[in-house]
Amino acid sequence: MVKNKRKTIEALRLGATLEDMLLTLDTQLHLLKMVDADTFLYLAADRQVTNLALLRSAVNRHVTALSA
User: Fold this and answer.
1) What are the distances in angstroms from CA 63 to CA 9, 16, 68?
2) Where are the domains of the chain?
3) pLDDT tens-digit series, residues 4-63
4) Closest by alpha carbon to 62, among 31, 18, 38, 37?
5) Three-point CA angle 67, 20, 37, nearest 5°
6) How far, CA to CA in Å, does 61 sit from each of 7, 10, 41, 50?
7) What is the DSSP letter of 55?
8) How far is CA 58 from CA 22, 32, 65, in A?
9) CA separation for the pair 41, 67 (Å, rounded)
10) What DSSP element (H or E) covers 66?
Protein backbone atom coordinates (compact mmCIF):
# COMPACT_ATOMS: atom_id res chain seq x y z
CA MET A 1 0.00 0.00 0.00
CA VAL A 2 2.79 2.41 0.86
CA LYS A 3 4.60 1.71 -2.41
CA ASN A 4 1.41 2.17 -4.41
CA LYS A 5 0.55 5.41 -2.65
CA ARG A 6 4.04 6.76 -3.35
CA LYS A 7 3.72 5.79 -7.02
CA THR A 8 0.40 7.61 -7.19
CA ILE A 9 1.86 10.74 -5.58
CA GLU A 10 4.72 10.65 -8.07
CA ALA A 11 2.46 9.96 -11.09
CA LEU A 12 0.24 12.89 -10.17
CA ARG A 13 3.31 15.09 -9.62
CA LEU A 14 1.95 16.30 -6.32
CA GLY A 15 5.34 17.16 -4.87
CA ALA A 16 4.09 15.88 -1.52
CA THR A 17 5.50 13.56 1.12
CA LEU A 18 3.51 10.66 2.53
CA GLU A 19 3.02 11.19 6.29
CA ASP A 20 0.46 8.57 7.25
CA MET A 21 -2.39 6.42 5.97
CA LEU A 22 -5.65 5.61 7.72
CA LEU A 23 -7.64 2.43 7.15
CA THR A 24 -11.05 2.17 8.76
CA LEU A 25 -13.00 -1.00 9.41
CA ASP A 26 -16.36 -1.19 11.11
CA THR A 27 -14.68 -2.34 14.35
CA GLN A 28 -11.09 -1.08 14.01
CA LEU A 29 -8.90 1.86 13.05
CA HIS A 30 -5.53 1.13 11.42
CA LEU A 31 -2.87 3.83 11.12
CA LEU A 32 0.40 3.57 9.18
CA LYS A 33 2.80 6.39 10.12
CA MET A 34 6.00 6.92 8.19
CA VAL A 35 9.06 6.95 10.48
CA ASP A 36 11.49 7.60 7.62
CA ALA A 37 11.62 6.92 3.89
CA ASP A 38 11.79 3.13 4.32
CA THR A 39 10.16 2.49 7.69
CA PHE A 40 6.64 2.85 9.00
CA LEU A 41 4.85 2.16 12.26
CA TYR A 42 1.56 0.28 12.02
CA LEU A 43 -1.01 0.38 14.80
CA ALA A 44 -4.49 -1.12 14.88
CA ALA A 45 -7.01 -0.20 17.57
CA ASP A 46 -10.56 -1.12 18.56
CA ARG A 47 -12.96 1.67 17.56
CA GLN A 48 -15.05 1.07 20.68
CA VAL A 49 -12.25 2.15 23.03
CA THR A 50 -10.39 4.83 21.05
CA ASN A 51 -10.80 7.56 18.47
CA LEU A 52 -8.60 8.89 15.70
CA ALA A 53 -7.11 11.70 17.81
CA LEU A 54 -6.00 9.26 20.54
CA LEU A 55 -4.65 6.82 17.97
CA ARG A 56 -2.62 9.51 16.21
CA SER A 57 -1.30 10.80 19.54
CA ALA A 58 -0.13 7.32 20.56
CA VAL A 59 1.50 6.67 17.18
CA ASN A 60 3.28 10.05 17.21
CA ARG A 61 4.71 9.32 20.68
CA HIS A 62 6.13 6.02 19.44
CA VAL A 63 7.53 7.57 16.27
CA THR A 64 9.24 10.25 18.35
CA ALA A 65 10.75 7.57 20.60
CA LEU A 66 11.97 5.58 17.59
CA SER A 67 13.49 8.67 15.98
CA ALA A 68 15.46 9.61 19.12
Assistant:
1) 23, 20, 9
2) 20-63
3) 899 999 999 999 999 999 999 999 999 999 998 889 999 999 999 999 999 999 999 998
4) 31
5) 50
6) 28, 29, 11, 16
7) H
8) 14, 12, 11
9) 11
10) helix 52-67
DSSP-derived secondary structure for 15-44: -----EEEEE-SSEEEEEEEEETTEEEEEE
Whole-angstrom distance, CA of residue 39 vs CA of residue 13: 22
How far apart, in whole angstroms, are the C-alpha atoms of residue 14 and residue 46? 33
Query: Which pTM does this prediction carry?
Result: 0.82
Q: Please count the residues of the chain.
A: 68
**In this structure, are residues 58 and 49 in contact, taking their beta carbons and an 8 Å threshold?**
no
Q: DSSP letter for 47, please.
A: T
